[in-house]
Amino acid sequence: MATAMDWLPWSLLLFSLMYETSTFYVPGVAPINFHQNDPVEIKAVKLTSSRTQLPYEYYSLPFCQPSKITYKAENLGEVLRGDRIVNTPFQVLMNSEKKCEVLCSQSNKPVTLTVEQSRLVAERITEDYYVHLIADNLPVATRLELYSNRDSDDKKKEKDVQFEHGYRLGFTDVNKIYLHNHLSFILYYHREDMEEDQEHTYRVVRFEVIPQSIRLEDLKTDEKSSCTLPEGTNSSPQEIDPTKENQLYFTYSVHWEESDIKWASRWDTYLTMSDVQIHWFSIINSVVVVFFLSGILSMIIIRTLRKDIANYNKEDDIEDTMEESGWKLVHGDVFRPPQYPMILSSLLGSGIQLFCMILIVIFVAMLGMLSPSSRGALMTTACFLFMFMGVFGGFSAGRLYRTLKGHRWKKGAFCTATLYPGVVFGICFVLNCFIWGKHSSGAVPFPTMVALLCMWFGISLPLVYLGYYFGFRKQPYDNPVRTNQIPRQIPEQRWYMNRFVGILMAGILPFGAMFIELFFIFSAIWENQFYYLFGFLFLVFIILVVSCSQISIVMVYFQLCAEDYRWWWRNFLVSGGSAFYVLVYAIFYFVNKLDIVEFIPSLLYFGYTALMVLSFWLLTGTIGFYAAYMFVRKIYAAVKID
């Protein structure tokens, strides 16, 4: 009986946990229940354009302002993305319709834009700017209806509905500029199932807008700030003349519709893609090709190695073996420390730091904990993880530096903690100065920059030192053969052993595994799309690791067979060869997909691309280097050395 009584509290605890789990939500994204006529706050995020790549605050343009402007406290990721979430004067009540209402109209007078304001609005419209609003953390979208069936004889053409993030600020037609000054909000709610005596609650599940341009003369207003929209197509759009003052009304209407979509699935609309099948097919194709090539490479290398080791270990044909050229002949030099061991170990330490950070971020995002609804969470997590992974980067760099006969561990630790982050910070600071000059919200504020520096020198640097100290104290990697005192002469190498040719050859397979995914990542970064395919990305990352490792092993095997033992730096550079193809693809994407013509947007694109390419080279170079190092130690441990 006592045993049963002992188990009872644990059973109750387990039951309560099971009950709680059914109502568990990721922090920050729990649903908000609204009652009839509860206020639903509409907030503005920013203005964006894929042509300029410079986000701006909502109130950088002369929109109507509420009596008190309140900015939301933002996380690090939101600040770095250029989000400046602020309240707006739109009055929206749950399940309450509004035909037409005028914003910021004093005594029924229209808003007057000065010449300077008119010029700024006209400039933003010609630069294809989009306005981004949110309601209950759900971004506004513009519905696009495309006809998928092009057969003119078929009267029942199928509509393919897609959604555009945000809404266009305005449009141009025959050298005239028009502003979208009327917004028709369409909000969808899901009615929650309640007991009979309880009041119904609603949840917002979709937020659409139909932007319209309506001329001042066509809008009829009254003293209660209500207005009447013109019927049919009789109205003319509201033109903005940048050379003079313009008068106009800012108006909006609200329409509510009930929806079957549940709160948990409300983001599906925004993440719908028109080419899911193509994406699936491309990924499967990449997987099959890479694994097929990897299998062939593995088979060839294993069979060749077995043959080599068997020949080298034969005792009866010693004379033939001695005359034979091959990787065994460089056994006395293969582990000779390279030039600049401190820089090599520092770069590889940063590569390990990046590898751990990317692996954890992709895995956590794949579990759905860094979804687009958690605004800025992905970038915040990545920044903090990179800082905390400094302990692993420092440990691996310290141990390798000790193995390469290094002695100045304090200088090595400082180099590991500052070399790669210093380059990143330097490039970002220079780019940030240009963004500041444009008064864009994409510029990182000075306090945030100081906070990032404090994180770097207060978290990352001490952790790198800590890891480096323990890594340097640990026993160095055990190399199976001794290094000769006199370096062996290296024979003249064939043309295909050239470093640049090696980079070109080694980069093809890893790049082929991931270039499909690269298109979606570039679209998310440069064209303001949502990226959410982290399951695909995790699979691609695993394939990338496998392909980089195998290519690196093949390249180091060929190099040692050519009796060139200077493999340390060469293997690190060649293994990151796919970064060269990423750079080429980025240039192709810039020329073919983006409509960027100005200097500063181009500078931003290539500045951030340079950071991506550098980081990708460090990542793939580190993966390849450690695979090659393990391979070299294994094969020299398998042969008998006199």
TrEMBL record:
Top-level taxonomic group: Eukaryota
Membrane-traversing stretches: 280-302, 346-370, 376-401, 413-437, 449-472, 500-526, 532-560, 572-591, 603-632
Predominant location: Golgi
Signal peptide (from-to): 1-23
Subcellular compartments: Golgi apparatus; Membrane
GO biological process, one term: protein localization to membrane
Sorted UniProt keywords: Golgi apparatus, Membrane, Signal, Transmembrane, Transmembrane helix
Pfam family of the protein (one): EMP70
Any one GO cellular component localisation term in the record: membrane
Membrane-topology annotation of the record: Multi-pass membrane protein
Similarity comment: family membership: Belongs to the nonaspanin (TM9SF) (TC 9.A.2) family.
Name by which UniProt lists this protein: Transmembrane 9 superfamily member
Organism expressing this protein natively: Rhinopithecus roxellana (Golden snub-nosed monkey)
